[in-house]
Design a protein that fits this description.
The protein is an alpha+beta fold. It has two domains: about 80 residues; about 80 residues, Gyrase A, domain 2. About 60% of the residues lie in helices and about 20% in strands. A hairpin with a 4-residue loop joins strand 1 and strand 2. The mean pLDDT is about 85.
Length: about 180
């Protein structure tokens, strides 16, 4: 085939061919960029959805953990309160032995002294000691009976046998 077209037209045809190639290249490039943008947009949308779902899931689990932690903490507090109530009840039912001893010593005559002091279950107290005369022992007993916190004061008959250098013991209960 022989090309008989003038040089000017050949150049125009060549220019048109080049323009078509450039146009095809530009359209291909534009389609590539659009498809790349759409692909990136779909990945972004997918990851955004996954991220939101994970945030929601994390938030829900955090609320569950917070609720569990709070309920465990409340249970611990309730248990401690029960223990404190038991301790408080124990101490409320205790007798102040220091106060009891103080009241006994206030009424103990001079020259007399205590040799033993013991406390058993509850408010029962045993006391033993030495006193110079039976009359001082009788006065001591009467003074103890005047103390309103002491009840059921028991001085056994053995205490009254000797008239001098009396070794005595007695028991009593303390009213709380």
């Amino acid at each position: 085939m022989i090309n008989l077209l003038p040089l000017q037209e050949k150049k125009e045809i060549m220019t048109r061919k080049k323009l078509k190639l450039v146009l095809i290249f530009e359209i291909g490039l534009l389609l590539f960029l659009i498809s790349g943008y759409l692909a990136l947009f779909s990945v972004k949308a997918y990851l955004g959805g996954k991220t939101d779902a994970e945030k929601t899931n994390l938030s829900q689990r955090q609320k569950e953990v917070d609720q569990k932690t709070i309920s465990d903490f409340e249970k611990d507090i309730e248990e401690l309160n029960r223990k404190l109530k038991r301790v408080e009840s124990f101490y409320e039912n205790q007798i102040s032995l220091a106060k009891v001893l103080e009241q006994i010593y206030e009424n103990l005559p001079s020259g007399a002294y205590l040799t033993s002091f013991s406390s058993s279950y509850g408010s029962k107290i045993n006391v033993a000691g030495f006193i110079l005369t039976k009359e001082e022992l009788l006065t001591f007993k009467k003074n103890l009976e005047k103390i309103k916190e002491f009840k059921e004061i028991d001085f056994p008959l053995v205490n009254w046998v000797s008239s001098k250098d009396v070794e005595f013991y007695f028991t009593f209960e303390v009213i709380k």
